[in-house]
Design a protein that fits this description.
2 copies of one chain form a homodimer.
Chain A: E1 2-3, H1 14-28, E2 34-36, E3 43-45, E4 51-61, H2 73-91, E5 94-104, H3 118-130, E6 137-144, E7 149-159, E8 174-178, H4 183-194, H5 203-206, H6 212-221, E9 226-229, H7 234-245, E10 248-252, H8 264-269, E11 276-280, E12 289-290, E13 293-302, E14 311-315, E15 318-321
Parallel strand pairs in A: 1-6, 5-6, 10-14
Antiparallel strand pairs in A: 2-3, 4-7, 5-7, 8-11, 8-13, 9-11, 10-13, 12-13, 14-15
Chain lengths: 331, 331
């Protein structure tokens, strides 16, 4: 954790300085491919020979991506890291390290009476997810800000030329999705309706599990022709995949693995499920589950045709255009 | 550039969508070690065999690290990238790619009458610095935010085991600095006193030049035992170097290369000069300039001794403790 002006760099604020030392020591306990972590000008990561480096950044802002009143700091820590790990999952990359830049009002860096500070609880949630995914906290930045925000960077490694891209889908490929869809949006709707006290019911919204093992499996077996993670919602993310692959797609509404608490609309447009959407040639055998998570064929890839929608939703009675209606967070 | 909810991902806002396409096409023009840039779940970077990956993140927030009233968007773009490139310079790393996460009020993404938008001018300044340093814009994130902020991530490569660390200084080493000190603080003081109209005089504050070539030279020749960049100010950054190397230091006040417009206090505590501070054994021949930038020996490394200050400033009449008084930006 590098410190900046107005921060304890100069030893002006012993309380914050010791906070940063505590974060540093908690982070250092879980190093793996990390050659040099917090405390120098840069962190140093060591991919294996023949590997490329995958990098993703995700900015989360209070009032937009999370609400301080609704989301405990542990939840914010978990969710911000899950967003980045899910991007690595969608490339079939193995995590090397995470970096987190925090802008925080000063009161969130201070102890709350006898309780630990918001920032310490944020790292509790962050590190609790980082540990099972073997992702060391390798660095970051901290600045005072009137608005709470976290920019999380994930760096991963993937054998050269083996990354799962959005652009590899071909007409005739089948379309697959891991897990179930709409649970995160249904959880959020319940949170909106009932307030924070039903939090325990809302794990898929509060604690999404990125599909890193599933992405690695697809990459290692060479099964997928294209992949993307469902952060913005199936309708929007499938548009991204079709645009990058220059193809069209048809989704079979009756085959969608809708979460039992979710509506079809939440499954199509809900976002933040952090499942993987991928394509594979129709002759390829894709298992019904990967690393314990169900995989469902939900449609097929078609050639682009100006007379037909880029993405169509097929129902029993015919097809209709599926517009990109990615989820709107708390805006 | 990945887009997020509330952003044009779903094609809801064709103006912003075309803006992002324009940024993407401007960024794509300068790819180098970049295998895959903006438009997928992650960017892919390809270090050479035997290289490690250096990563640094720097968060800049309006009102704290820059002022929208004082700093034109081109200046903010330049300065936020310079902060990160300077961290790579201090490791002796070669830039592979840059990532920028922007949180912006919506009006900064819109055209200003017939003029281009703030965000486009930000990228003009960012890319104008990126180009000569061969640093492709590889990705990032964009979100609406009531507060303008930029988190810039730099990824670089350095041969395994060859990075310049803060922790390598040994008693007896001499202490060197590139360029001149205090110019950025003197420029800022002039800006404070006179307002934006004397901007042209203020290049070292507005357009600092990171010392990437000098850091690479030191790394390739194996000259430096430790290095750090002067972002927080000589007094604070030298404390960091001494702490990481577990040594003490003496700075000779009469030998400091103080910028002709700066005071001694600005040279010691001003910050944002983005020069390199490094150490080398006293028997090592260090040239008087590297890649066109002057190098000055300004002191020496000593063993730690509880009876003496960690960092001392030596004047003609003796020594005094040099406290870490890193610069306070606009707080």
């Amino acid at each position: 954790m590098r410190t900046r002006q107005g921060q304890p760099a100069g030893g002006k604020n012993p309380g914050e300085r010791s906070l940063l030392e505590r974060i540093r020591s908690r982070a250092a306990r879980q190093a793996a491919d990390l050659r040099l972590g917090i405390g120098d000008d840069c962190a140093l990561l060591a991919p294996e020979p023949g590997e490329e480096v995958a990098v993703t950044t995700d900015l989360s802002i209070a009032g937009r991506h999370f609400l301080l009143e609704w989301h405990r700091p542990e939840v914010v820590g978990h969710r911000t890291l899950a967003r980045g790990l899910s991007d690595l999952a969608a490339m079939g990359a193995r995590p090397l390290g995470a970096f987190v830049s925090l802008g925080l009002p000063v009161e969130l860096t201070r102890k709350r009476g006898s309780r630990s500070s918001w920032i310490e609880d944020f790292f509790t949630g962050f590190l609790a997810l980082a540990r099972p995914y073997r992702t060391p906290l390798a660095g970051g930045d901290l600045a005072q800000s009137p608005l709470a925000l976290a920019d999380v960077v994930l760096v991963g490694a993937v054998p050269r030329g083996r990354a799962l891209l959005r652009s590899g889908a071909r007409p005739g490929d089948l379309l697959y999705v891991t897990g179930r869809l709409g649970g995160a949006a249904a959880g959020l709707a319940a949170l909106r309706a009932s307030g924070p006290k039903f939090r325990e019911l809302l794990r898929s919204h509060l604690y999404p599990q990125p599909r890193v093992a599933q992405g690695l499996w697809l990459q290692r077996r060479g099964v997928a022709t294209a992949a993307i993670d469902l952060s913005d919602g199936l309708s929007t993310d499938l548009h991204h995949l079709c645009e990058e692959s220059r193809v069209a797609a048809e989704v079979d509404a009756t085959r969608l693995p809708v979460h039992p608490s979710a509506t079809l609309d939440q499954a199509l447009n809900g976002g933040e499920d952090y499942e993987l959407l991928f394509t594979a040639p129709s002759r390829t055998r894709v298992p019904r589950s990967i690393a314990g998570v169900a995989v469902t064929a939900i449609g097929r890839i078609a050639p682009r045709d100006r007379r037909r929608p880029l993405v169509a939703l097929m129902t029993g009675t015919g097809g209709e255009p599926l517009e990109a209606r990615g989820w709107e967070h708390f805006a």
